[in-house]
Specification:
single chain, about 120 residues, mainly beta, 5-stranded antiparallel beta sheet, 3-stranded antiparallel beta sheet, elongated
């Protein structure tokens, strides 16, 4: 999974199709992401010491990773990402449309370095 927190993603399906938002959390075991301002639901909360007023809270719920697409920093379009090794052996994400790099995935390893 090449999506990390603070990435900008675009929603592919559902009520919020086409919306863009920042990734708040990534659950790798369940393959879900929580996106800011997307897939909101209401939760009724009883009064307590933690929440003295009670009432209805609006909160974001997780989305499957397959329903979001990373927005490329280079071409500013939603595109599929790939992973490739750089000359120093570090692994980076890249846009399949324009080929621009979109951040590192793994630090440099000597066995993948080009000699």
């Amino acid at each position: 999974m090449l999506i990390k927190t603070n990435d900008l993603v675009q929603i592919l399906c559902g009520d919020d199709r086409g919306a863009r938002g920042k990734v708040l959390r990534v659950d790798r075991s369940a393959r879900k992401v929580v996106v800011e301002g997307v897939n909101r639901t209401r939760k009724h909360v009883r009064r307590s010491q933690r929440n003295p007023r009670g009432g209805v809270l609006s909160m974001e719920m997780p989305l499957p990773v397959s329903n979001v697409l990373l927005v490329c920093r280079g071409c500013n379009a939603a595109a599929r990402m790939g992973a490739r090794y750089q000359a120093d052996g570090s692994k980076e994400r890249y846009c399949k449309k324009c080929g621009a790099g979109n951040g590192l995935v793994a630090p440099a390893k000597t066995r993948y370095a080009k000699k």
